[in-house]
Amino acid sequence: MPRYTIIKRKALNSLPEVLEKLNLKNPLVVSGRNTKKYNKFDYDLVLYDEEIEVKGYDCIIGLGGGKAIDVAKYIAYKNKLPVISVPTTASNDGISSPVVALKKPSFLATAPIAVIADIDIIEKSPKRLLRAGLGDIVSNITAVLDWKLAKEEVNEKFSEGSAIFSMTIAKELINYILNSNLEEYVSKLTKALIGSGICIAMANTTRPASGGEHLFSHALDLLKEKYNFNSLHGEQCGVGTLIISYLHKKEGRENYLEEILESLKKVKAPITFEDLGIDREIAREALTLAPKIRKRWTILRNGLREEEIEDVFNFIESL
């Protein structure tokens, strides 16, 4: 879990002070081509797609989007160094979690020791990324519902505290979206994503924030090269959350389908397969593949029957 979390305008100015408090004197910044301009203190910098040599550095700073931060976390983990997260957008909860998603499935590495989220910078990021961020937050709801299901059906270990924390983060953001003019959306979203990542770190498992909706997203990722579409992780998780919530509703279980749907619609996030740039056949392949992605019990169980898949399609296409 982060020892320092700074979420405000001009937060980047706090970076040298945070390094000093942590007694870190020689950082290496890992960034992307479009985000390296934010390295305003001229620390040594490498691009995340370059070969990275770490000798002589005492920490890694991930400056950029999800890929830059993931590479920074991975490099820090491999070299037993602390990592500091400086996100330039808010599209997923990797900002503060120990999760590294460079390979499928993702794995737990080391959580950032500090997170510095500059709202002035994040607000300038592409609107599509900020819409996708909501998809990764609403997925906390179905992740927890699936986790509860796993406890009931296969006696999986369950953390009530982590589940409540994760669910509350999502519900509070949805409530804000449905009852506001979205003036503070970027700040609220960023705080929610950081909270979600911390929740994963606390539980030492992705369970509080990853259920059947993430299996669906991971399956889509595996199909991208084959079918040539480019939907984002958070976008896929948002649509996946609608699917999983619908399945819980069909079984008469706790669900928040209407609130999730309305919040995604309000920020103009994807809600249908068409919005993701895929058709029924790609969605069918992803739903079939999803339960096989990893050993994780969800409402998809060992796989949906053909009539259940058709029912899901009819629901999504009706939105």
Describe the protein's architecture and organization.
One of its GO terms (molecular function) is oxidoreductase activity, acting on CH-OH group of donors. Pfam families: Fe-ADH_2. Keywords: Cytoplasm, Lipid biosynthesis, Lipid metabolism, Metal-binding, NAD, NADP, Oxidoreductase, Phospholipid biosynthesis, Phospholipid metabolism, Zinc. It comes from Methanocaldococcus infernus (strain DSM 11812 / JCM 15783 / ME). This is 3-dehydroquinate synthase. With 319 residues, the protein is α/β, with parallel strands linked by helices. The protein folds into 2 domains: 4-123, Rossmann fold (3-Layer(aba) Sandwich); 127-318, Dehydroquinate synthase-like, alpha domain (Up-down Bundle). It has helices at residues 15-21, 66-78, 119-122, 127-154, 160-178, 185-203, 212-227, 233-250, 257-266, 273-276, 280-289, 306-317, and strands spanning 4-8, 27-31, 44-47, 59-64, 83-87, 99-100, 107-108, 114-118. The chain has a 6-stranded parallel beta sheet. A hairpin with a 6-residue loop joins strand 6 and strand 7 (107-108). The longest helix is centred in the middle third of the chain and has 28 residues, at 127-154. It is globular, with a radius of gyration of 19 Å. The termini are far apart.
